[in-house]
Amino acid sequence: RQLLECVAPQVATYGGVTVAVSPNGLFYSNEVSFTYYDDMEIDYIVPEMGFVHGGSNDAVTVHGKNFLPSERILCRFGLYTSTGTYEDASTVSCQVPSQSTAQEVSLELSFNDRDFIGAASYTYYTLFTVESLTPSTGSISG
After folding, report:
1. How many structural domains comprise the chain?
2. Which CATH number do you get for residue 81?
3. For residues 73 and 110, is the Cβ–Cβ distance under 8 A?
4. Beta 104-110 vs 73-77: how paired, if at all?
5. How many angstroms separate the CA atoms of 92 and 117, rounded?
6. What is the tens place of the pLDDT at every residue in 39-63?
7. Do the bridges between strand 116-125 and strand 49-51 make them parallel or antiparallel, or are there none, so unpaired?
8. Can you give 48-69 as a three-state secondary structure string?
9. For the segment 6-39, what is each residue's pLDDT rounded down to a tens digit?
10. DSSP state of 101
11. Can you tell me the distance from the alpha carbon of 59 to that of 41, in angstroms, rounded to the nearest whole number?
12. Residues in domain IPT/TIG (predicted)?
């Protein structure tokens, strides 16, 4: 097996094409499929923040344009990657991975395991506990 890497030329519109390779312009390999997609964009995410523990109960909804139906969507929160779920062409849901420290990270999406688009900002916060509230009563007028 040998690896041949090609750069996809720019095209005017999205859709499927066939690709074949030729060493001399006379004889060609078998054809394989390649799909061009329209440029995807992330517009905003909900929520924009969460706790550092992340986990299976924490999800972010990503809203944008031209998302591709895919069974393997990756959501990258800074250095950590999680799985995403395609909802429709403008919505993807991402599991929030845990982080070791409170920080703001970039959230990016990949629909092909290689190229990431985005980004939106997601902020991790540390867990906190309210120990007391003073005063603990107040007037209805504020």
Report:
1. 1
2. 2.60.40.10
3. yes
4. antiparallel
5. 13
6. 899 999 999 999 998 877 799 999 9
7. parallel
8. CEEECCCEEEEEEEEEEECCCC
9. 889 999 888 889 999 998 989 999 999 998 888 8
10. S
11. 19
12. 42-125
Which of 61, 72, 60 has its CA nearest to residue 112? 72
32 found inside a domain: no
CA dist., res. 72 & res. 134, Å (int) = 50
pLDDT value for 55: 74
Instruction: Read off the tokens for 35.
Output: 């799909």
Q: How far apart are CA 92 and CA 115, in angstroms?
A: 16
pTM for this one? 0.76
Instruction: Tell me if 84 is assigned to some domain.
Output: yes
Q: Does 35 map to a domain? A: no
- For tokens 């312009």, name the residue: 25
In a domain, 118, yes or no: yes
CA distance 122 to 39: 22
Contact 118, 42 (CB under 8 A): yes
Query: Can you tell me the distance from the alpha carbon of 135 to that of 138, in angstroms, rounded to the nearest whole number?
Result: 7
Q: Calculate the CA dihedral of residues 113, 116, 119, 122 and round it to 10 degrees.
A: 30
Tell me which residue range forms the domain holding 99: 41-125
- Which amino acid, 2? Q
